[in-house]
Each structure stands twice: as structure tokens, then as C-alpha cells.
Amino acid sequence: MPTIQEIKSDYGEQQIRLINECFELAASAQMAESELSASTMNELGGDDVLRIRAVEGAKWAESDRQRIKTKYLELDLELRAAVDIRLEQIELALSPKDVSFTDLAAAAEASPETLKATMDMALDGGDEDSALLAFQAGRQRDLDDVVAHAVTVNEAWGDLYGELMDAANDPELDPGDRFEMFAAKSPSRYDLFNKPNAINRAGMMKNG
């Protein structure tokens, strides 16, 4: 299973590609095929054709931007689901497998120094469950020194705990608001009409 950082990186790259597509909307809209026939274009004349093509292009761009945004939001949901699955795996890996209620109660009352000492002795003796219980108690009780000790004495725990911290640093911005913040706006018909030399010569040719 990829790490949380790898999951975020993969989905982030996909979302960046979608954001970049929005900056190509104006160029793509100018190349969109027209619904006007070649004969209609000839009857209307240049300026009228360009105005209609600008309207068509703007509608196409708006629709395509919505398609891009929908895909962006879908990727965000997939990202959250993938991160949740990975979090479950991490919590399972960092949880003791076979401990009694008495053990849990003792860990809940133990001092930070006792938890660290217990962790060290348990690891030295090959009793990972007892060591994990001490680590778990430190996390649940927000004992920073116990947590810091745990991630120092066991590199694998440190890597897994680092993933938990990475997941906790998720941006609070709504994904839809994030998209709108970074994605280019859909070009208007005025934007497209003001580029008469670029507006869909290809679209006109397709209908010729």
C-alpha cells in the first residue's frame, strides 16, 4: 500500500493536470466544431459568423470546465477514501494485538517515565505488544515525550506515525473552493470574439 504522502502526491498531480486544462479552455474553445453549416457561414458573412462562433465556443468552454471540475471533485473523494484506508492500516499496525483489560488500565495510569521504560524493556525482550501498548497510551493521553521516544526507538513506528501527522495536515479549504481559487475561468463570448484571427478557422473548415 502506498504511503499517505505517495497517495496525496499521486492524486495531487492528477488534480494539477486538470487545473492546467482550464488554462487551455480558450484555445480549445476556438477549435471546437461549429454547428453552423458551410453554406450558412457563407450567407452570414465574417463578423456574424465570428459572433456565433464566439457564443458556441463560450458555451463549449463552460461545459468543459464543469466536466473538469466534476472530475477534480471526484478525485478528491477518491483521495479521501484512499487516505482513510491507509489510516486504518496504520492504526492496526500501531495497535497492540493481545492485551488484557488490566494491561490497558495500568497503561492509562502509568507515568510518562514508566511508559518509556516499559517500552524499552518490552522491545528488548521482543514483546512488541507491550511496547505498542505503551506507545498507544502515550498517543491517547497526548504525552508528547512518550510519543517522541516511541518514534525514536522504533524506526518503523516513526514512519507510520509520520504518515498520521501528514494526514492531519490536510488543507481545510473546500475542494470546490480550492478548484475555483486555482483554475482559470471559462472564457466569455466577448473574450473569444476579441480574438477574430484565432477563432475557429478549423471549425469552419470542418464544415466546409
Please provide the ordered H/E string of secondary-structure elements: HHHHHHHHHHHH
Overall pLDDT, averaged? 86
Low-confidence stretches: 196-208
Structurally, how many domains make up the residues?
1
Secondary-structure class: mainly alpha
Tell me the Rg in angstroms: 29 Å
Terminal-residue CA separation = 54 Å
Report the portion of residues in β strands. under 5%
Specify the overall morphology.
rod-shaped
Largest sheet: none
Proportion in helices: over 70%
Number of H- or I-type helical stretches: 12
The tally of beta strands, per DSSP, is 0
Structural features, described:
The chain is 76% helix and 0% strand. The chain has 208 residues and is mainly alpha-helical. The protein has one domain (4-195). Helix 4 (46-93) packs antiparallel against helix 9. The radius of gyration is 29 Å and the shape is rod-shaped. Mean pLDDT is 86; it is low at 196-208.
What attributes characterize this protein structure?
disordered C terminus, mainly alpha, rod-shaped, 208 residues, 12 helices
Layout of secondary structure:
Blueprint: H1 4-22, H2 25-31, H3 38-44, H4 46-93, H5 101-109, H6 112-124, H7 128-140, H8 144-153, H9 155-168, H10 175-182, H11 189-193, H12 201-206
